[in-house]
Design brief:
This protein has about 210 residues and is an alpha/beta fold. It has helices spanning about 55-70, 85-95, 150-160, 180-190, 205; strands spanning about 1-10, 20-30, 55, 75, 100-105, 120-125, 135-145, 160-170, 170-175, 175-180, 200. The strands form 2 sheets. It has a 9-stranded mixed β-sheet with strand order 3-1-2-4-5-6-7-8-11. The chain has a two-stranded antiparallel ribbon with strand order 9-10. β7, α3 and β8 (about 160-170) form a beta-alpha-beta unit. α1 (about 55-70) crosses α2 (about 85-95).
């Protein structure tokens, strides 16, 4: 099985419950999701289907083991990694069979039908309303607090999904500027309305100046 890969690299996870964890990152090429922040996407080179390089699943798994060792973490991101659903499933299965732990970050707008226990950790960062969300359970949901995200929209994700953790993250305004105030205001409103499950998170890797 082959994958279209924008880049691979080893770095520290910046957001969510695994923040600070060393991981081998695989960024897939291409993204079909027309999300509200596409125009300020921090990985614009990964959006188009054209570009990148072709890698075999076995090559990706071998590179991950070389980088983080058996028992280490492979992080699959994009782009939208589930656009190539068969390739993603093949990579997850091969990586877990080789002894790697797997985390996938996705918009949640593409369903996968992988059984629990065989898909690794799933991080959903919604790029559309709840009614478009195909993946409604997983390890964590990270909601970017853009100006289009109201408290009622955030509440709908809490009520209509089942994740182990729920996070609010500030939107990146470019040039190392973040709208942290909106994130804090949103989470404080959610706490006050009886949703204490929400936590703040950030892209710590960018604050530390690592990829």
């Amino acid at each position: 099985m082959k994958l279209s890969i924008a880049e691979t690299f080893t770095s520290h996870q910046g957001t969510g419950s695994l923040a600070g964890q060393l991981q081998f990152f695989v960024r897939t090429q291409g993204c079909s999701v027309k999300c509200p922040i596409r125009h300020i996407c921090d990985e614009p080179d990964a959006l188009d289907d054209a570009g990148g390089q072709t890698m075999l699943v076995s090559e990706v798994v071998s590179a991950a083991i070389d980088a983080v060792g058996v028992g280490g973490w492979l992080h699959i991101t994009g782009g939208e990694p589930l656009d190539n659903l068969d390739g993603w499933k093949s990579l997850v299965s091969a990586a877990m069979a080789a002894g790697l732990r797997v985390q996938t970050q996705t918009s949640g707008l593409v369903g996968h039908e992988m059984p629990i226990g065989r898909m690794g950790r799933i991080t959903v960062s919604p790029k559309g309303p709840l009614e478009r969300l195909k993946i409604r359970h997983g390890s964590e949901l990270v909601l970017v607090a853009g100006p289009w995200v109201s408290p009622s929209i955030a509440s709908s994700f809490m009520q209509g999904t089942s994740f182990d953790y729920y996070y609010i993250a500030p939107v990146c305004l470019g040039k190392c500027k973040w709208d942290t105030r909106s994130a804090v205001d949103l989470i404080e409103h959610l706490w006050a309305s009886g949703q204490p499950q929400w936590r703040l998170t950030h892209q710590l890797h960018k604050l530390f100046g690592v990829k």
